Each structure stands twice: as structure tokens, then as C-alpha cells.
Amino acid sequence: MGERFVNAYWRGNTLTAVQHDGDGVSLREMRADHSFFVRAADVRAKPDIVRQFRDSRYCTGIVDEGEWVRVRWRYERPDPNHSPVHVRAARFIEEQYKVPTFEADVSPVRRWVVENGIEVDRPRRCYLDIETDSRVPFSKKSQARILAWVIVGEGDGSDVQAGVLESDDDAAERDLLLALWRALRRYDQVLAWNGDRFDYPIILARSERCGLKGEPRRWLWLDHLLLFRRMNVSAAESGEEKQSMTLDAVARAVLGTGKLDGVTGEQSWELWSTNRGRLLDYCAVDADLMRQIEARTGYIELLQTLCEATHTFPDTFGVQPMGQVETFLMRLGHQRGMHFATRFGFTGVHGFEGAFVMEPTSRGFVRDAHVADFARLYPSIILSWNMSPETYRPDVRLKESDIRPAYLSHLPLKTFPIPDGHCGAALTDCVFVNEPRGILSEALDEMLRLRSHWNKLKASLPPGTAEWKDADRRSSAYKIAANSFYGVVGSPFSRFYVREVAESVAQCGVWLIKETIEAAKGRGINVFYGDTDSLFATGCTREQFVEFVRWCNAELYPRLLKERGCARNEVELAYEKGFDRIVMVTAKRYVGRYSHFKGTAASADSKPEVKGLEWKRGDVSRLTRELQGEVIARLMAGTDPPDPATFVPVIEAWRSRVLDGSLELPDVLISKRLAKPLTEYARRVKKDGSFAAEPPHVRVARLLKARGQDVGEGVKIEYYVVDGEEMTVAPASDWTGNVDRFYVWETMVYPPTERLLAAAYPTTDWRQWERARPPKVRAPKA
To answer: For the residues of 669-722, what is the DSSP string, one character each?
Structure first.
């Protein structure tokens, strides 16, 4: 085990590591290592390379490390628009001498962690909220004076520190910020809701304006909103929990309580002027809500465990799976004497064939459905085929190239046997060596070994104890990390990306599930749906399906993988669940009533499984979710499917409510996230030279930007439709009740439920309730 540190950062040629020292921290400074590597064989073949290094005044050393030569550099960046000198030197070597360089883009912190066996220590955590001058719009947030701050430490909520501005001048704000920075000294990790977009940049900008100098990177700044959104994607039971990511909305969904009643952030200046105690109360409630959300969800603790497992510091950047996996792989590679290619930036997307998705072949209610899925499909494929960038043999092919003269096109392509000691990926013609084990396989083996260790320890501990919870988090962390590997390998942004490797993983998955479906047909089992790593089947008893799964694992997969030359077989099919009845709307969209889950029988209170339907989505209106939710509950209730006629009064009642009843903003609110910066939404020009209409949420975002509000990438834009015929929309903040009710019913509320009912009862015409807008009255002909 290496030394434990809570944080590290670098500036220029100095790296500073932060380590706990009693109740405080100590800062250890050392040389920041800006290096890259070249193979010693390449240097020997082209000695002029060394001369180029020695002639550079920025090169500080050339170190022989066996098979590798490390070239050290002094950090120098001519200006923000140019790469550092050592990265430019690496590019020059690759372009001028056609010699590959390795890891020129690796930061000094990652190199220090990788090469010194550094372990990540648990930080002292606090939750921060600030209030600023509400008269200043978001677009000018750095000009907003900070009025108050509150810090709540982790634990029971009794550790609270606060500060409020004494007077509206720079000197008072400087004193307020000094007090904040002093209060933060007790902590290492600072969490704020939407902190990366609001709290943190404002604190830094105002501190700089007040002449306060320091090193903010001494702290781990973690945006609680971003972490919650990432962790909650699969945990949320309904779309209600996803529609809004404001602290108040999330707190009410998770805790059942929200912000201080009767107070909003828009009142902060008024409160500071008239009732500062109330302003501090408002700020303190916000900070403590984050502590309570973490106590209920445990997402921050899970991130901490994941970061400890992957040797990544837990700030906002540490939330990204790519950084976690890359650090873990580089550390393992260092132990094996490996280095990885320099990444000079994003080189573009190179598409490849993805996962298998089969459109459902059954309509209506499907009874007694059985579901099997592959355990850890992509990790098991990587392990079985030993897939990794360095085990891939691009020089070995299993079939003749299809690039040949036209007069030979009628001849079949020649095929070649898989060489000894190699295995061939299915459907891609890619070959991998069986030995030595690849870096990806070895890393996955270690992840799965550690998960197994913590699972066994968890099973030996009393449930619910602190030790049991710790073991559970560690087991979950290693599972998350293992499942992240393919996403990193398959991302062109990753240094481990090789298109052929990524495609081979996906296509072996396609091949396995197709072979399984064919085998099921041979036994009289009807597979009516399949998706990536799972298949849904009918036409057999539960016992027969259990036997089929056993046979696949014992006989089918060992034979198939042996034929592909695999020296190892980690592929395993599991009988996951059964449905008493299931309704398939389309691929990836269904609702089913359980008969059992992993062998445990369902009860009358068991909730149905809902996948892909609007009830689970956060970008549709509340009425859309509620209507579909009521229909889902009725479809899945009881032992037998209901008569379709029972839904007629439900539809008519909802139609009447939408067209004539009282509507509130949440009933009709649409919420869509900006997928990129607003400036990147280019307006399309039509053939007549006019501009095509932009998406509604983009138009609303442009309006909000003009008002000075936050419309950055990732922000959810909330709006409603005033006139559906002209597609006139308005921001949620402009709500007056003037909404196009016909559009709400015809386009928003009814269609998702209509599609579900049509899937359940395909012989019933559900379109008769679709139209609501009165037909246009045409003027009489003259």
C-alpha cells in the first residue's frame, strides 16, 4: 500500500500533495513530472531524435528505463491557444520521425498517482450554500456581491458555520470571504448544488476582485447536482424524480421536504436589506438539505469508494468514469512496464456496429414470459477473448480482403483457420492472442476479484451495520467500475480506444445472443424479444427454461468459444425473472407484471417493471405521466388482464380534465436539456432563404439568455405551449394559465397512453379519442 493523500494539484513545474495531519493538513511540494516516453528501440534506430531533445532548452533530462526512454521537460506554455512545449515536441517527433510517443498528455498528478502507488484518503466533507445579490442576472453572476454563506459539516447537522455581509461595500465583502476561507480550512471536500456553474465561480471571482490570494485547488470541489444526476438515472422510479434537478425538487422527491417556505433566491437582496436572520435560515436549510440527501442516497460515499478503488480524487472531474478507468489501467500498466499512446485531442468519431436489438414479435398481452440475461456480458467477452489494444493482431486475418478486381468478384472469399494461441472474434474477423493476458482482462480480473472479496465479507456481517454498509458500497463500486470498462474502450475520447476492439466486443455480444435464440428455437422455445444482453421467451414451463439456461452454460457456450479459439470461457446466462404478463410497445419500451424475480415469487404488492415509457421520463408533462401511470396500474392489476372497455371512462375523464378542468404549470410543463452550448445550435436555412424553426427549448433558451438567466450546456429549459398550431412557446416563468389545451391533449398527454393501449389491445381502435381541436371553419365560396 502506498501513502495516502486527500488531494493533489500542480502549477507549472511544482506539484503539491495534500495529506491529513491531525485535524489539519500538510502540503508536500515536489517537482511536477512533465514527461513523455519513446521506445528505446526507436531511439536506437533514429539517434537524431536524442539530438533533438538535447538541443531543446526545455528538455531537462533523458532517462534510460530499459525498453523505454523517459524524456523530461520543463513546463512552458507560450499562450493559452498553444499546447505545452513537451506536447508540441511529442507531436513533432511523431510527424517528423514517424516514431510514436507515449503519455505526453498525462497530467503530473495522474503520473504521480500512477507511478508512486498513491492511495486516495477519505476527505473531510462539508456542504456549502451562498446567497448573492439577486438584482444581478445570472449572465453577470461574477458581478453579484456575496450576501451570506453557510457551511454544514457531515454528520448529524450540528456542525454549522455561517457568515453574512455587514454592509454593502467591498471591505465588508472581503471580510465575509476571509471568514469563509478560514471556515473551509477544516475541510477537504466542498459540495454545493450546481456549484460548478454558480457557487464556485462566484466565490473565486469575488475573492479575486477583493484581492484575496490563495490556492483554491487545495480543496476538492464537487458539484452535488452533477453527481446526483449521474447516480440517480437508474435509481429513479418515475419521471417525476427526473423532471427538475433544482435542489427543492430533488429534496422533495428524496426527503419529502424542501426549501424554506415562502422564500426564494430572487428575494435574497430584499431579505439581506430587511431580515438577515431569515436569509441565513434560508441559506442554512439549503446546505443541510444536501447533507440529508446524501444521508438518504449515499451517492457521495459511493463515489468516494469508487475513487479509492480507481485511485482518483473525488472532485467533479473524478465523477467521470473515463478518468477513473484510465487511472486504474495506467497504474496496472505501470506495474507491467507498459505505456500508452499520446492522445493529442479528439480525432473524430469512427462508427462501428453496435449491440443487438430485436423488435418484439408478439402483440397484446404476452403471458408466462421468461427472461434470461448474460451476466456482465461485455466484461465476460473481454475476459474470454482476451480483448485489449495490445493483444489485438491487425496483421492476422481470418478471411481474404474483399478489395479485389471486379473480374474476381464472383469467387467466394478465402477463409483461414484461427492460428494456434489465438482466438477469433465473431462477426468482425479480428484476432487476439490468448497469452499474455491483456491489460483490460487483467484489470477486469482484479475488479471482479475485489468485488467477490467484498461480497463475501458483506455476507459474513450483520446486515445494516456500518461494516456491512461499507462492504456493500465497495462491492457496488467495483461492479460499477467493471461495467464502465467497455464504455471507455468504446469511446473515441479515450486513450484506450481501438475501433476494432470496441466493435469486436459488441459483435461478440450480438453473435452470442443470436446463437442463443437459435438454440432456443431448436428446443421449441419462442424468443419474442431480445436486447443487447437479454432475451424474452415463451412456449415453455419455468422448469424447461431453467434447464435451457443450464444447458447453454454447460454445453453451448463452452463449445462455441472453443470453436473460436478462446482459452477461457467467462460467458454465463442467468434466468433473471419471469412475467405473469407483459405488454411490449416497441423495442426497449414495455411494462410487465412479475411472476418472480431471481427465484423469489412476486406478491400482490410487487410493482410492475416499466422500461422506456413516458411514466419513467423527466422531459414530459405531469399529466402525461399521471395518465400513463394510471393506465399502467390498471393493466397490471389483478390476476387477469382487464377488459379494454374499462379504459373508456378513464380516457374520457382525462380528456375532459385536460380540455375543461383547472390546469397548473406542472401539469403542462415540458423540460428539455440543452445538449450543447447555445452558440452551437446553428439555425438551418431553408431553400427559400428563410430560417427553419428552431426546437422550442432552444428558442426559449435564447429568450432566457437575453434576460440574463443560466442557459449553459446541460441546463434544463422549462416551457409550455401557448399555441400548438403556430408552435408558440413560453418560458415556465411566464406562466399565466394561457396554454393550448388542444395541443396538450393531442400531442403531449394522450399519444403515449394511446400507444400503450394499442399495444395491449391491438384490435381496439384507440384513435377515436385522439382529436380534440375543433375543425377550422372555412369561409363560404363567393
So the answer is: -EEEE-SS-GGG-PPPBPTTSPBPPPPHHHHHHHHHHHTT----TTPEEEEEEE
Q: CB within 8 A of 252, min separation 6: which ones?
A: 258
Helix H or strand E segment including 343: none
**Distances from the Cα of 142 to the Cαs of 132, 198, 203, 283, 697, in angstroms?**
10, 9, 8, 19, 26
Q: Are residues 291 and 148 in the same domain?
A: yes
Query: DSSP assignment, residue 769?
Result: G
Q: Name residue 174's amino acid.
A: R
Cell 473525488 sits on residue: 314
Identify whether 738 is part of a domain: yes
Which pLDDT does position 245 carry in this prediction? 84
DSSP β-ladder status, 600-601 and 609-611: unpaired
Domain boundary among 119, 140, 157: 119
Phi, psi of 638 (to 5 degrees): 75, 175
By DSSP bridging, strand 68-73 and strand 34-39 are antiparallel
What confidence tens digit (pLDDT) does each residue in 454-476 have? 999 999 999 989 899 888 888 88
CA distance 426 to 10: 46
Helix/strand/coil (H/E/C) assignment for every residue in 359-420: CCCCCCEEEEEEEEEECCHHHHHHHHHCCCCCCECCCCCCECCCCCCHHHCCCCCCECCCCC
Same-domain status, 488 and 524: no
**Domain boundary residue, one of 119, 139, 172:** 119
- The answer to whether residues 664 and 732 belong to one domain is yes
* Percentage helix, strand, coil for the chain under 3-state DSSP, each rounded to 5: 45, 20, 40
Amino acid at site 342:
T
In whole angstroms, give the CA distance from residue 747 to residue 82: 50
pTM of the shown model: 0.89
Q: Which residues sit opposite 162 in a β-bridge? A: 150
Q: Which domain holds residue 607?
A: 349-389+507-612
Q: What is the DSSP letter of 128?
A: E
DSSP at 780: P
Q: Are residues 759 and 585 in contact, defined by beta-carbon separation less than 8 angstroms?
A: yes
Q: State the total domains in the chain.
A: 5
More confident: 182 or 711: 182
- Are residue 593 and residue 481 in the same domain, yes or no? no
* pLDDT tens, position by position, 184-216: 999 999 999 999 999 999 999 999 999 998 999
In a 13 Å sphere around the CA of 709, the CA atoms on its Cβ side amount to 15
Looking at the structure, do residues 97 and 132 belong to the same domain, yes or no? no
Same domain, 341 and 436: yes
Give the pLDDT mean for 71-96.
91
Residue with cell 513530472: 33
Q: What is the pLDDT of residue 234?
A: 61
What is the pLDDT at residue 349?
59
Cα 335–chain centre separation? 29
Structural contact between residues 664 and 657, judged by C-beta atoms closer than 8 angstroms: no
Which residues, 6 or more positions from 409, have their beta carbon under 8 angstroms from its beta carbon?
none
pLDDT tens digits, residue range 224-234? 999 998 888 76
- Using the CB atoms, write b or e for 60-96: b if 16+ within 10 Å: beeeeeeebbbbbbbbeeeeeeebbbbbbbbeebbee
In degrees and rounded to multiples of 5, residue 65 shows phi and psi of -125, 55
